[in-house]
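Page 37, continued from 36.
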């Protein structure tokens, strides 16, 4: 679940050399903030995709493979989560996957 979101976050981490979104998501105290940070990451990702030159070619290649429709569906799935325990589990999984993917992209 949420593989596309994790890939998107990993690209942002690898290209910007910043863990901002992963940290924000990891510490978000509510579903509203999780969704807000995800939408913020989407906006930054779209801006990044339109950038003519990237500093990290691995991140660029990964970004081309991300299916944005799938990412949107994953976000809609998060919107349907009702309990905080389940939300924490999903967010923890997303951030862990993102960090794992980012480490591969930053080699």
């Amino acid at each position: 679940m949420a593989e596309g979101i994790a890939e998107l976050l990993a690209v942002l981490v690898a290209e910007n050399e910043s863990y901002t979104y992963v940290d924000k998501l990891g510490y978000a105290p509510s579903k509203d903030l999780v969704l807000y940070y995800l939408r913020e990451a989407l906006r930054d990702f779209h801006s990044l995709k339109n950038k003519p030159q990237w500093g990290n070619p691995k991140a660029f290649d990964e970004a081309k493979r991300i299916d944005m429709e799938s990412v949107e569906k994953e976000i809609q799935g998060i919107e349907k989560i009702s309990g905080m325990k389940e939300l924490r589990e999903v967010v923890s999984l997303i951030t862990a996957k993102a960090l794992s993917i980012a480490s591969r992209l930053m080699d």
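Residues 3-105 form one domain. Flag for discussion at group meeting. The CA atoms of residues 4 and 68 lie 8 Å apart.
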